[in-house]
Amino acid sequence: MPGRREIKRRQTRLALITAALRLADERGVDRVTTEEISAAAEVSPRTFFNYFATKEHALVGDPLEDCPAPVLKPLPLLDALLDALAPAFEQIQGDRDLWLLRMRVISANPQLLPLLIAAAASAEQRLAQAIADQTGLAPDHPRPQVAAAVANAAVRVAVVRWAESGDSRPLIEHVREAFHHLKEVDDSRRT
Amino acid sequence: MPGRREIKRRQTRLALITAALRLADERGVDRVTTEEISAAAEVSPRTFFNYFATKEHALVGDPLEDCPAPVLKPLPLLDALLDALAPAFEQIQGDRDLWLLRMRVISANPQLLPLLIAAAASAEQRLAQAIADQTGLAPDHPRPQVAAAVANAAVRVAVVRWAESGDSRPLIEHVREAFHHLKEVDDSRRT
DNA sequence: AACCAAACTTGCAGTTTCTGCAAAAAGATT
DNA sequence: AATCTTTTTGCAGAAACTGCAAGTTTGGTT
Predict the structure, then answer these.
(1) Confidence of residue B54 (pLDDT cuts 50, 70, 90)
(2) Which nucleotides in chain D have some atom under 7 angstroms from a protein Cβ?
(3) Is the distance between the Cβ of A4 and the closest atom of strand D smaller than 7 Å?
(4) Mean per-residue pLDDT for B18-31?
(5) Which of B58, B36, B41 is nearest to B49 (CA)?
(6) Which end of chain A is less congested by CB atoms within 10 angstroms, N or C?
(7) Closest nucleotide to A5, Cα to C1'
(8) What residues 53-82 of chain A have any CB closer than 8 A to a CB of chain B?
(9) Separation of alpha carbons A122 and A127, rounded Å
(10) Where is the signal peptide (chains A, B) (predicted)?
């Protein structure tokens, strides 16, 4: 259970993230300084760098920081992936406002998109591990790696589309749709 | 045809990239300064930033800078993708030593991997456009976007594996292998 | 309650990164 | 050669980032 420390840390972290996003949304990323962000979050400039290596990291955050490690059920792969990643979608959907703001800032400042993609990379590694565990393949076998990378790519497309649509449909539906299109990638019809 | 200017620009760019990679390989990314890199490339420190926004960008470069826009033939999608991306693979394979060095530096400094992934993002957009063109779908339709993202993910896995294997097999084979595993992602066997 | 140890914050000094601007150098054009 | 464009460079300064050595808060122990 989280003690006072953990709670306060999360508060500070969230305050920094929201301050960074709010300011970047108003003026653009490169017209905001770490000083202003820390001031808005009411911590010292030095503390900012105790939480984030760079300004950009504060904007992107660690989107899935406290998300449970994915566990795959013995289902067809796509179904198992959809099930294993559901908690992540719920968390994103739960932080709806924060995420819509974040995605708006990323859209307006495309140099951030890489970082968002990057943030998913660590999650991708954990997913590859989970797939390897469930299938009994070696973790460095190409199949789990490709499967994880593909799932990651599909989720990214879904999140971007979800945010662009302004949450008019729940995220999970966009993910389902993206996964559906996965099945068409390897059909043998001519393009 | 490229004049002296274009030639010199490419030379300078390549000199900066190789200097950055060589130094980062020797000492680690964060023990190299942009000053040292520009000195090694025999340009002024200021010039470095005319070419790259950050030190990290110099290390990752723009891997596919002068690669022709992909064009899809009317084949089954995976075959068309493999065909359309072949020039990119050849270019990478042609710059074998540079790429192996780059991937070694990236392995040793994982914070760079995101940037590599990111660099592929612009190529991914062009690919999505090409798929949309060929299929007659809207560029913002999820199918071309998912297809491009998936192809991108598969290529990334292939390049990483190719580099880790030290080019014991040609890159194109790793890509074929990764594409082959794509077909298994949506099969309906239980995991 | 008194105390201690660990975790977190802060200030400060110093290095490195990065930008804007204007002058100089090099290349292209006629 | 004269001129125009592109690239390089130096300089000044802002902002980003790091290491260190305090202080402060928190959690647990006696």
Answers:
(1) very high
(2) 6-12, 15-20, 26-28
(3) yes
(4) 97
(5) B58
(6) N
(7) D26
(8) 72, 74-78, 80
(9) 9
(10) none
CB proximity list for B126: less than 8 A, separation 6 or greater: B69, B70
By the CB < 8 Å criterion, does A186 face chain B?
yes
With residue A43 as reference, give the H or E element that holds it.
none
**Per-residue pLDDT at A1 exceeds 70:** no
> What angle in degrees, to the nearest 10, is found between the helix axes of A142-164 and A113-135?
140
Kindly state whether A139 is in contact with chain B, defined as any CB-CB distance less than 8 angstroms: no
Choosing among 3.80.10, 1.10.10, 1.10.150, 2.60.200, the CATH entry for A4-58 is: 1.10.10
pLDDT tens for B114-157 read 888 888 888 898 999 999 999 999 999 999 999 999 999 999 99
Q: CATH classification of A77-185 is 1.10.10.10, yes or no?
A: no
Strand-pair partners of A190: B76
Instruction: Considering only residues 130-169 of chain A, list those whose CB is below 7 Å from strand D.
Output: none
DSSP letters, A65-77, are: TT-PPP---SSBH
Q: How far apart are CA A83 and CA B171, in angstroms?
A: 34
Residues of each domain in chain A carrying CATH 1.10.10: 4-58
- Asked if the C-beta of A146 comes within 8 angstroms of chain B's C-beta atoms, the answer is yes
